[in-house]
Design a protein that fits this description.
The chain is mainly alpha-helical. 67% of the residues lie in helices and 0% in strands. It has helices at 3-26, 29-45, 56-74, 85-89, 97-111, 114-125, 130-137, 141-158, 171-177. Keywords: DNA-binding, Sigma factor, Transcription, Transcription regulation.
Length: 187
């Protein structure tokens, strides 16, 4: 198999993970899709700089993260819904309680500071180790752990969760609010 075909297949395999990460950063599916597309185009343009055998997933997430923060810096003058008043006014109709719980979780996740939301998504949802997340974010492992701890505490506060037993059976919600198992990466 040619090197460009292997590279292309690697890119395609990571699109769902990239989209999930982009969605957690932006909070909007259309912005997330644009961010993933931009990141894929940048990755394709820079494919000659990718070292075969290295961690493509971390490389792509770094590109996506950098593109996100570049976009964020460009839009500093725009008014954002920081306190979530507009987001809170949007009704979410659901047939099952899980949909409502997930909507509450997503609203709370968007209220986290970007650095905490980013680490929570990298370590919890995307399965990166603390070390990999630190490399992607360009910070120390201790910083990742600190941001993660603050993110967990803030999420629990926003969701009014006093104990893990108060959380429904939704796996994504449990993963975001439960401490990691010893020896395994997690939140």
């Amino acid at each position: 198999m040619s090197q460009s075909r292997t590279f292309r297949d690697g890119l395609l395999a990571e699109i769902p993970n990239m989209r999930a990460f982009a969605l957690s950063l932006t909070g909007k599916s259309d912005r997330a899709d644009d961010l993933v597309q931009e990141s894929l185009m940048k990755a394709w343009a820079a494919h000659a700089s990718f070292v075969e055998g290295s961690n493509m997933r971390a490389w792509l997430f770094t590109i996506l993260r950098n593109a996100y923060f570049t976009e964020l810096r460009r839009k500093r003058r725009e008014v954002e819904d920081v306190e979530g008043k507009h987001a809170a006014s949007i009704a979410v109709a659901g047939e099952q309680a899980g949909h409502l719980d997930m909507a509450d979780f997503q609203n709370a996740l968007v209220q986290l500071p970007p650095d905490q939301r980013e680490v929570l998504t990298l370590v919890g949802a995307s399965g990166f180790s603390y070390e990999e997340a630190a490399e992607i974010c360009g910070v120390a492992v201790g910083t990742i752990k600190s941001r993660l701890n603050r993110a967990r505490a803030r999420l629990a506060s926003l969701l009014s969760i006093g104990d893990v037993s108060e959380i429904g059976p939704d796996r994504a919600t449990l993963a975001a609010t439960s401490p990691p198992n010893p020896g395994q990466p997690g939140l």
